[in-house]
Amino acid sequence: QVQLVESGGDLVQSGGSLRLSCAASGFAFSRNVMSWYRQAPGSVRERVATITSGFSTNYADSVKGRFSISRNNGKNTVDLQMNNLKPEDTAVYYCYTPSVWGQGTQVTVSS
Fold it and tell me: N or C: less crowded end of the chain, CB within 10 Å?
């Protein structure tokens, strides 16, 4: 069974940091592109960061310089380190690989 399970969401003050983690199972993790998306209330889901099987990374302009995506192929995990968080980063964050979504984890940044 293909599965993505996110963890690490929390309530944090503006300027703080959080690290999200996504545990993957049921597919050849090391071969897959992995991404983090987020969806704020009343907004469309947007891509935040992507890491390829070759460890190349790509970020949305809104998070460049603040967020960092990484993967551990030995543990089948993909993490999102989020620094200097802003209230506009408040959203449900989702882990994604083609055709598979996680259940999401809530990140709330207070001003």
Answer: N
Structure tokens that stand for 35 in this block:
């991404």
> How many angstroms separate the Cα of 92 from the Cα of each of 39, 66, 74?
5, 18, 27
d(CA 52, CA 45): 20
SS3 15: coil
Q: What is the largest CA-CA distance in the chain?
A: 40
Q: How far apart are the first and last CA of the chain?
A: 40
Percent helix, strand, coil in the chain, to 5, is 5, 50, 40
For residue 44, give every residue at least 6 positions away whose Cβ sits within 8 Å of its Cβ, in sequence order, or none: none
